[in-house]
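Researcher: Let's do a round of design. I'm pasting the structure tokens now; please hold your answer until I've finished.
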């Protein structure tokens, strides 16, 4: 289909591989070219089944579009079309061989783009066929990139197939709610149900890339175990109550504890929006008078910002990982924990010949492109980086990406190492979840003597524990037996079972606001669906404040974000960029940041896990690779 006519050349040429020459005259839409393309389509349709009415690609099929464009309405071939049965390669990938036109896009995206090589071609000539790496089934990232890139309906989604048509859905662009990379995903919604996830317009920092979580793990939103009514603990279990009754009980208890100078503990979420985190921190400090605010911290952002304080251009963006001359990955399996960042690094290697260096405790995918790979024992990551110093000094610029293995003094030593190289160095401090960075920036951290999450759970004299979108009691116990526990969440988690009052919260796919990704880029969430009974956390905070008689401002997302832009350093980002679906980088480096109490530990999530959310995604749990391991040969650590 890329044939073109070149003046003074006797035959049509293949435009995608023909070098440009001085004085060349090329015609791309002449009558000869059109006729040749029409003939090509006839060949493609020789054995292609004419099942457009039932094909999932209908309305989005490139072959269909080209046939309409060039008018290949009749075929000169009369041979009977061959048919073989459809194959299921995995829970999310089906293959219909007769529809395949052997363009090899799926093979190339899996090999070159994903670095997995799970697809190949068997046999030769007319009997060539795409096959998976285990012949009858896939063993891969299960990302579905092969389905999206297929120009016809040969590869179809096990989740979306035969469900609906593209023109019957509302397409809502929002940000994935799982890892911290901040990929934009387009949710196809019909009748208040998410049917499909992809990035159909290739917008956002991720372009066409999505992992299995961004493309398929939206199904938790429709899980039958979703909480849909406030509940109060009674003898023998929980009793559903109205929102007004639940809010009245919470506000009354909060006011009583505040009046007698009792002790509050508030554990926030790294999945809630910036606006919700900001309002929660303000409600805690100004409304309840407590500094005991924290969340599950998965990266040492406090030391990170302090060590780089006052510097300009020290924080790398997602785009920097694609353009940097060299990248050093320390203490992280990027392909498992941060798939978009890993994709950017691999694309940088393919397109720009970037030099990739790794310092890890086990094999990682980046080793295949590595100019220097160092294996270390736990705790030896900084020393491993120093062993690469002579090689790195020869680079012209560098981005250092590091995980939770680097924190405290080790992080300061890593920055000192970067300074010693004598070249421009930028850094990425990895965190786990969709708004872990935003939770820190918005102040959901213990300040001025406040207790950490671990200290709150261990405090025997705690009067109130308020948990928002977190599950701290999954692997821990609450020391205070008499504490009044309020939980806002989507599901009946281990923490929710301990609650005295339980409030059903909306997920990220059901609310508007902003989130900040691992590289500090602010992006906008857009509500795709509504779930009966659930409320956005921001609305819940506002209603509790109102019930307590507190005046903390209007709790609409846009109004709170305006306050964030004025009061949170580095967040005075351009509104048009965020409002139109772009990613606006923040600049939070300004002055000393106090050290914070409490543990900093990654949940060690893989491609197929996402804290408590992954428990309620049937798709993530159905693939044979789940739950996976961060490093090859290691057992996966449990996260919250």
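Researcher: That's everything. Go ahead.
Model: Designed sequence:
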């Amino acid at each position: 289909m890329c044939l073109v006519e070149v003046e003074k050349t006797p035959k049509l040429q293949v435009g995608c591989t023909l070098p440009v020459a001085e004085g060349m005259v090329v015609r791309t839409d002449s009558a000869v070219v059109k006729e040749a393309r029409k003939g090509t389509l006839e060949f493609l349709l020789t054995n292609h089944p004419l099942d457009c009415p039932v094909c999932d690609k209908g309305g989005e099929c490139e072959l269909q579009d080209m046939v309409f464009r060039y008018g290949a309405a009749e075929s000169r071939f009369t041979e009977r079309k061959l048919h073989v049965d459809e194959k299921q390669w995995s829970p999310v990938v089906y293959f219909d061989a007769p529809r395949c036109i052997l363009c090899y896009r799926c093979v190339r995206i899996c090999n070159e783009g994903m670095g997995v090589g799970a697809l190949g071609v068997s046999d030769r000539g007319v009997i060539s066929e795409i096959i998976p790496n285990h012949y009858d089934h896939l063993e891969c990232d299960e990302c579905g990139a092969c389905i999206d890139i297929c120009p016809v309906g040969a590869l179809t989604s096990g989740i979306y197939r035969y469900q609906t048509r593209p023109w019957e859905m509302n397409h809502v662009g929002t940000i994935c709610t799982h890892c911290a990379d901040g990929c934009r995903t387009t949710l196809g919604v019909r009748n208040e149900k998410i049917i499909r996830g992809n990035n159909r317009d290739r917008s956002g920092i991720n372009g066409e890339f999505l992992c299995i979580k961004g493309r398929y793990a939206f199904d938790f939103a429709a899980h039958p175990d979703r909480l849909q009514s406030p509940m109060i603990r009674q003898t023998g279990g929980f009793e559903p109550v109205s929102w007004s009754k639940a809010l009245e009980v919470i506000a009354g208890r909060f006011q009583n504890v505040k009046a007698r100078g009792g002790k509050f503990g508030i554990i926030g979420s790294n999945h809630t929006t910036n606006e919700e985190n900001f309002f929660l921190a303000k409600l805690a400090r100004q409304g309840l008078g407590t500094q005991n605010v924290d969340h599950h911290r998965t990266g040492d952002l406090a030391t990170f910002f302090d060590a780089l304080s006052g510097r300009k251009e020290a924080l790398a963006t997602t785009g920097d990982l694609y353009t940097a001359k060299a990248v050093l990955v320390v203490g992280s399996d990027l392909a498992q924990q941060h798939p978009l960042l890993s994709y950017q690094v691999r694309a940088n290697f393919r397109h720009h010949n970037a030099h990739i260096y790794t310092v890890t405790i086990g094999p990682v995918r980046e080793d295949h492109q590595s100019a220097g790979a160092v294996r270390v024992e736990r705790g030896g990551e900084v020393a491993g980086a120093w062993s690469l110093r002579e090689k790195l000094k020869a680079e012209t610029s560098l981005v250092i990406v590091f995980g939770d293995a680097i924190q405290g003094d080790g992080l300061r030593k890593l920055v000192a190492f970067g300074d010693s190289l004598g070249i421009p160095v930028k850094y990425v401090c990895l965190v786990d979840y969709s708004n872990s960075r935003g939770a820190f920036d918005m102040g959901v951290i213990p300040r001025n003597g406040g207790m950490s999450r671990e200290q709150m759970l261990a405090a025997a004299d705690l009067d109130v524990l308020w948990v928002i979108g977190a599950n701290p009691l999954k692997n821990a116990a609450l020391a205070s037996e008499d504490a009044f526990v309020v939980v806002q969440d989507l599901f009946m988690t281990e923490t929710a079972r301990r609650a005295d009052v339980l409030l059903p919260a909306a997920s990220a796919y059901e609310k508007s606001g902003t989130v900040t990704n691992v590289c500090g880029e602010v992006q906008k969430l857009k509500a795709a669906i509504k779930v009966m009974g659930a409320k956005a956390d921001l609305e819940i905070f506002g209603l509790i404040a109102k019930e307590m008689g507190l005046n903390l401002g209007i709790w609409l997302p846009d109004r709170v974000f305006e306050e964030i832009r004025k009061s949170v350093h580095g967040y005075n980002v351009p509104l048009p960029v965020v409002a139109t679906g772009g990613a606006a980088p923040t600049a939070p480096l300004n002055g000393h940041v106090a050290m914070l109490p409490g543990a900093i530990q990654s949940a060690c999530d893989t491609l197929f896990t996402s804290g408590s959310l992954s428990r309620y995604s049937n798709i993530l749990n159905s693939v044979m690779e789940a739950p996976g391991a961060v490093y090859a040969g290691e057992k996966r650590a449990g996260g919250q």
